[in-house]
Amino acid sequence: MKESRLAGAPLGHDTVYPEKYDPSLLFPIPRDANRQALRPLPGWTGADIWNAYEMSWLNAKGKPVVGTARFIVPESSPNLVESKSFKLYLNSFNETRFDGPGIVQDMIRRDLGQATGSAVDVTIQCLVPGQTVTLQALPGINIDDLDVAIRHYRHAPELLRCLPGAGVVGETLTSDLLKSNCPVTGQPDWGSVQVRYKGRRIDRAALLEYIVSLRRHQEFHEHCVEQMYCDIWRACQPESLLVHACYTRRGGLDISPWRASEATSIDPIRTVRQ
After folding, report:
1. Which helix (H) or strand (E) holds 104?
2. What is the pLDDT of residue 48?
3. Which of 26, 64, 97, 229 lies 20 to 30 Å from 178 when distance is taken between CA atoms?
4. Which residues of 227-236 are buried (b: 16+ CB within 10 A; e: fewer)?
5. Would you give the distance in Å from CA 249 to the centre of its chain?
6. Which is catalytic among the residues 189, 203, 231, 254?
7. Residue 116, SS3?
């Protein structure tokens, strides 16, 4: 199934970088192919937050403009966009003249809307002298210092459990030990993950073992988050749940998908590895 849905994708192939704006470079991937394996799906809301750090185009006089961009794709969109195709698409702006960032922003919003099948929030910020950014850790209790013996490096949802006789709590747990792999190239995808829930207390050591068990798991970032969400939901049956992963950037792009059982909002942050 993976091979058929990725037929024609630029990922894993030598690529000629575009010399002019080309929206046809965007390669959509249907979400439903992955979600079939997760069914029956628990209810969720969420989005995929993309940050681009290599945004550039030419102004009307041919002078380069540089900046950053953020794209928020709702989880309800029929398609996600393959990341290498997204990078190539953004690079197609590099040698093309536009009258202003608003025009570029509107074009990207239109093109991503057509590729994903849903409205996409697009924000472009031109670089200005003296501009700074704030780096921060995912909010919550980090569980990485737990003294656990690791025996599983392949997806092992059976590790998840609640503490026997535990009462209902509300807490947020984080780990910087998330690693999965690209399903096409096998390259490592590094990330931090946040699990916020209300329900019977989750065994923190078991949760850490489970996160590490994804170390050889091969799937896209968005699908890994949905897998984690489903695994935790089924094993621990919380009253509410949020799973949010911030993946390290690759090729000038990072992706931070999140899924939640209740309507909520996520303040986009930039971790030290993004």
Report:
1. helix 101-116
2. 98
3. 26
4. bbbbbbbebb
5. 10
6. 189
7. helix
Report the pLDDT value the prediction gives residue 1, as an integer from 0 to 100. Answer: 43
- Rounded CA gap, 126 and 94, in Å? 14
**DSSP letter for each residue of 217-242:** -B--HHHHHHHHHHHHHHHH--SEEE
In angstroms, the CA 245 to CA 47 distance is: 11
Q: Over the stretch 152-174, which tens digit does the pLDDT of each residue have?
A: 999 999 999 999 998 999 999 99
Which pLDDT does position 13 carry in this prediction?
54
Q: Of the listed 48, 111, 182, 236, which one is catalytic? A: 182
204: closest CA among 232, 181, 241, 237?
Answer: 232
> For residue 217, which of 250, 272, 178, 169 has the smallest C-alpha distance?
178
189 is catalytic: yes
What is the pLDDT, as a whole number, of residue 4?
A: 54
209/202 Cα distance (integer angstroms): 12
pLDDT tens, 201-248? 999 999 999 999 999 999 999 999 999 999 999 999 999 999 999 999
Residues 174/138, Cβ–Cβ less than 8 Å? yes
Ranges in the chain, pLDDT < 50: 1
β-sheet bridge partners, residue 72: 49, 121
